[in-house]
Structure formats: C-alpha cells, structure tokens
Amino acid sequence: MGSALIKGLHRSGNHTVIACDLDPDALESVADYVDRTTSEVSEAVTDADVVVVAVKPDIVGAVLSDLDLSPKQTLLSIAAGVPTDYVEARTDANVVRVMPNLAAETGDMAAAVTGDDIPEEVRQLLDAVGEFAEIDEAQMDIATAVNGSGPAFVFYLIQAMAEAGVEGGLEESDAETLAAQTFKGAAETVLRSDRSTEELIDAVCSPNGTTIEGMEVLWDSNADADVAAAVRAAEERSAELAAEFGDENDA
Predict the structure, then answer these.
(1) 56 marked ligand binding residue
(2) Residues 103, 167: one domain?
C-alpha cells in the first residue's frame, strides 16, 4: 500500500516524498519515485508536515516508538485494523487514519479517512491519488472491507468475465482487456452519473436484448448475497484486528 501511494504521488508531481525503511530492497523498489531514500527515521520525519506510517499492523507499536513527532505534524496511519486511539496514545502528532487501496498507484484510489483534525495538506495528498470519503472511526471496519479489500473482489469478477470470454473464443489478452475496461468504464459512469445503479442497469437492458438475458441469470442467483458475504467477512476480520489493539490499550 505504501509503495502504491508513493508511485501515485510521484505521478502527480506535486509533493516532496522521502521514503524510509530498514529494508534496502524496499527502498530500492521505490527509489525512482521519491526525492530520496533513507534508513534513518529522524532524517525522514524531522521536517515533514505529514508522516505516513505504512506498515503491517503487528509492528505499528514498534515503529511509533521510534518516531519523535511534534503536535504541529500530522501522522497519517494506513495500518489496517489499527484504531486511531491506539496511535494517538503513542505520539504527540495530530493523527489521521486512512484506508486507501492499491489503485493509488494509478491515481484511481478510493480511500476512507477519519480524524478529529484533517488538515488541508492531507486532503491535497489524497486528492492527488484519487477520491476519498471522510467517515467516522466506527465506520472504518466496513470501509476497510469495501474499498480496502474491494479491489481483490473486483479482480475476481474481472477474471470470471474474462474467463467466460476465453471460453467463448476470445484470446486471453483480448478478453482481459475487454473485461477490465468494462469495469473501469462502468465505475466512471457510476461516479459521474446522477442515476442510481438500478437505473443504470435498466438503461443497459433493452427489452428482449442480450443484457437482460444475462441479468436474469444474476437476479436468479445468489451473486449479490455472496459478494455481501465477502465484504462482511473482511469487515469482521478488520474488527477483530481492532479489538486486539483495543485490548493492548486497556492492558
């Protein structure tokens, strides 16, 4: 996720980015997309307006213990399942929690963000790599499932459509292009249109046409329930992770 964010910010060209990691391979992988790399935490964060913590949840505490931030700085946490109050208890910085997704790399990110004070610098950063919604902390588990885990669910559906195309005689690369671009175009239509998704479905379905025949199969299936179940499972896991950090705060 951190790498995707770095590459997206590089594409925008409007931010000075310093990458910090103890793993030289990780730094090498993003070296072409940042102003400089370092393994020294103090060098990376001393003059930064926004410090992004993009690590696995189980090492967040260790990373925070190495950060000496001031109240004038903002710490942007993108560690899945780590509650804002856990981070706030371990830093003097203003804490903003965000759940982005991998599409930040291409400037098409969907992100959920929460915090008592979301500064303009953070809004500009997120705007540079996609769209974001400001939500309450209590909604972060479901947001994590919808937009954080969601790309994998969409990849699965793209794969299913592409495989159907291949079975029908399309070349694999052509089927994947058509399926992926169809998802991209449909998503843009939803974002730009004032019509509901139900209305958009009706707009594509001509009476006695091809689309309505396919939709009848979907309407008669459990596809919507299965997708909802996948989202709920991801939400429940996010809540479990958050509970573990809550228990640590109470200890």
Answers:
(1) yes
(2) no
* Range(s) of the domain holding residue 194: 150-220
In angstroms, the CA 133 to CA 150 distance is 15
Residue 151 assigned ligand-binding role: no
73 with 93: CB under 8 angstroms? Answer: yes
Residue 248 has pLDDT above 70, yes or no: no
Q: Annotated binding residue at 72?
A: no
What are the phi and psi torsion angles at 94 (to 5°)? -70, 125
55 annotated to a ligand binding site: yes
Query: What mean pLDDT is predicted for residues 191-216?
Result: 95
CATH no. for residue 213?
1.10.3730.10
How far does Cα 36 stand from its chain's mean position?
24
My answer on whether 84 and 181 are in the same domain is no
Mean pLDDT of 146-166: 97
The verdict on 206 and 154 lying in the same domain is yes
d(CA 98, CA 80): 9
Segment 12-17 mean pLDDT = 87
